[in-house]
Amino acid sequence: MADISAADVMKLRKMSGQGMMDCKQALAETGGDLEEAMTLLRKKGLATLAKRAGRDATEGKVVCQISSDGKVAAMGSLCCETDFVSKNDDFIATAELLKKYMDKCPADSGTEELAKTNVDGVTFGDVITECVSKTGEKTEIGDYTKFSLKADGIIGSYIHFNGKMGAMVEIETSDAEVAGKSEMGQLAIDIAMHITAINPAGLDSDSIDPDVLAKEREIAADQVKNKPAEIIDKIVDGKMRKFLSDNCLVDQGFVKDEKVPVAQVVSDTAKKCGGTAKIKRFVRIAIG
Hints:
Structural class: alpha+beta
CATH class of the largest domain: Alpha Beta
CATH topology of the largest domain: Tetrahydropterin Synthase, Chain A
Number of domains: 4
Strand order of the largest sheet: 1-2-5
Strand content: 15-25%
Radius of gyration: 25 Å
Helix content: 40-55%
CATH superfamily of the largest domain: Elongation factor Ts, dimerisation domain
Number of helices: 12
Oligomer: single chain
Shape: elongated
Number of strands: 10
């Protein structure tokens, strides 16, 4: 067996980020060959991934990356098995790297495309494998979405203090001047916070699955089937309006003032800024 020097162990540890004993063992098994030892450590990560493939990854972190000009924003989640590992330095470093990969990813969604994204010759899938070899837990991309402004507007984002949920929202404005106003910037953040907290099912009634609406109407009608026939439709219509106001973002009472619908808050703020605005789309990402 080759003599393994402390210097080689430290060098491999610096190269791989692995523990000292793991590095020493890898060098011992490969006759002191650093490159082979690196390969062995990587295989260890792949083996751990395969072994823990059936485990639930219900902990982790949500991260967001916004371009310097504010015109492109991406949000994603990196998931692991336990809260303990989600607070591990290696996992946190991997979650931070996820931001860079989301920025470089050519696709606007799709975790497979993100995993294949290459930065400096390394895919994010490779990064995850290395993280797994260090933490010993299943680690995977949970969600990924990227927004790119195609017209005048603003993208707002918010991540909850626990790091496990967040949202992005795109607001379309009548012109760039309105989008650039600080009031609109704060509003975009506030609406992203609203989405994170309230979890709307869709943007408006058109974005709710017609089958869901039909089912809700059926349930509402059954609830009032013993009422006089001439008032049943009115009652059902009222229940449907309540369902939409509870579930559609634009109709929900704004989290900072529940008496005012979100759509009105957007319109009123844009008017103060000298123009018009409307919410174009949103995404909410949560772990667990």
